[in-house]
Design a protein that fits this description.
alpha+beta; six-stranded antiparallel beta sheet; 18% strand; Elongation Factor Tu (Ef-tu), domain 3; FAD/NAD(P)-binding domain; 2 domains; 17 strands
């Protein structure tokens, strides 16, 4: 029986290992934690969520909601853990990140077909191998990947994580519970600001001191995870049209829509920790405490984790990878996760799942499960393998990269749901070709 090496036990690597092992493939899962940690990681567990505890939209009228449902249909370990350790977050799927990661770790450690090997991998091993080391790939392996592909294969940008505060340190006399437009239960703590308070806050944020950044410029920051201070510099009202938008919220203390609102989202099931939504940052810790405490409801907030800024690396996938995440000139070597240019937790999971399933089928001499752009999983794989135009950039799942609907025009919500229903029908047809048990 052939063994497969999976390098990295993040979301993509964990999912790939699970899919392989459930198809009677022996897996060696390599993870450098806890022997070596990155600046962005805090836990020794697998599948650690770094940037946020939200997996984004849950409904089938959203592309992230569709992708998550597709993953469930394929028996995703990550979605099993997410659903089991869900915390309320209105229309989004958010998780208790500690319990979520522990669930993934325990499932993989107890699987009879998976051997966990601790320690740093410095070179691409002989295949079959799936490299899923993520945006924080260690320097020696990153250098070997560059040698493997050529010097123009790798690009870098910065990714940022938001601060977390203790719930009981939030001044609820200056805040209120609500979800935007009353959607779902009232799960967010909303911290309103008057026009005067916002003006002072925005002004201080623009001039606040940033932590030192080595070798990269702000122009390389990925728009989907932009630091809040960078947004503030782009205009006085940029934040009010972004993470601080007040639309759909009414302050019960005034009966009016606030001028600006900072939302806090539950970070654990007990509701003792909340993260600042959209507040990814690389300000110094002291400046984070000073400036964010200017938000009235956070004047006495106790920060249990400050935001951090870290390197994010991806390869030129359209040139280098095929639609199954295999290296075009060396199919025994595969990549999965954010290094391929899929951006986001569930997108990384999807790449690991698709790579793992099809590598197992290749080893077992079975035809691949081939998904097209009428599914979210397939649309992502096609985007990273050649569906982008011009300068390749990381991509979240969205309906824009999926096959459009024909026929009569529908309202946006109806059209999105119809795309989702079409996709799930295709997925169900494919499931008949799969072996391997569900979670």
């Amino acid at each position: 029986m052939r063994k497969v090496k999976v390098i990295g036990a993040g979301l993509a690597g964990s999912e790939a290992a699970w899919q392989l092992a459930n198809r009677d493939i022996q897996v060696e899962l390599y993870e450098m934690k806890p022997k070596k940690m990155t600046p962005a990681h805090h836990s020794e567990s697998f599948g650690e969520l770094v940037c946020s505890n939200s997996l984004r939209g849950a409904g089938l009228e959203t592309a992230p909601g569709l992708l998550k449902e597709e993953l469930r249909r394929f028996g995703s370990l990550i979605m099993f853990a997410a659903d089991k350790h869900r915390v309320e977050a209105g229309g989004a799927l958010a998780v208790d990140r500690e319990k979520f990661s522990l669930e993934i770790t325990e499932k993989l450690q107890s699987h009879p077909n998976i051997a966990i090997i601790e320690g740093e991998v410095e070179r691409i091993p002989e295949g079959p191998v799936i490299i899923a080391t993520g945006p924080l790939t260690a320097d020696k392996l990153a250098a070997d990947i560059l040698r493997f592909f050529g010097e123009d294969a790798s690009l870098s940008f910065y990714d940022a994580a938001a601060p977390i505060v203790e719930a009981d340190s939030v001044d609820m006399e200056s805040a209120f519970f609500a979800s935007r437009y009353g959607k779902g239960s009232a799960d967010y703590i909303n911290c309103p600001m008057t026009e005067e308070e916002y003006a002072v806050f925005q002004g201080e944020l623009v001039t606040a001191k940033e932590a030192e950044v080595h070798g990269f410029e702000d122009s390389r920051i990925f728009e989907g995870c932009m630091p809040v201070e960078v947004m503030a510099r782009r205009g006085r009202d940029t934040l009010r049209y972004g993470p601080l938008k007040p639309v759909g919220l009414t302050d019960p203390h005034t009966g009016k829509m606030p001028y600006a609102v900072v939302q806090l989202r539950k970070d654990n099931r007990e509701g003792t920790l909340y993260n600042l939504v959209g507040f990814q940052t690389h300000l110094t810790f002291g400046e984070q405490k000073r400036v964010f405490s200017m938000i009235p409801a956070l004047k006495n907030a106790k920060f249990v984790r400050y935001g951090v800024m870290h390197r994010n690396t991806y390869i030129d996938s359209p040139r280098l990878l095929d639609k199954f995440y295999c290296v075009r000139r060396a199919p025994e070597v595969m990549f999965a996760g954010q290094m391929t240019g899929v951006e986001g937790y569930i997108e990384s999971t999807a790449s690991g799942l698709y790579a793992g399933i099809n590598l197992a089928r290749r080893i077992n001499r079975e035809p691949p499960i081939e998904l097209g752009a009428d599914t979210a999983i397939g649309a992502l794989s096609l985007y990273i393998s050649g569906g982008s135009e011009g300068n390749f950039q990381p991509m979240n799942i969205n309906f824009g990269i999926m096959t459009p609907l024909g026929g009569k025009k529908l309202k946006k919500r109806e059209k999105n749901r119809a795309i989702s229903e079409r996709s799930l029908k295709v997925i169900e047809e494919k499931l008949a070709d799969l072996d391997g048990p569900r979670v």
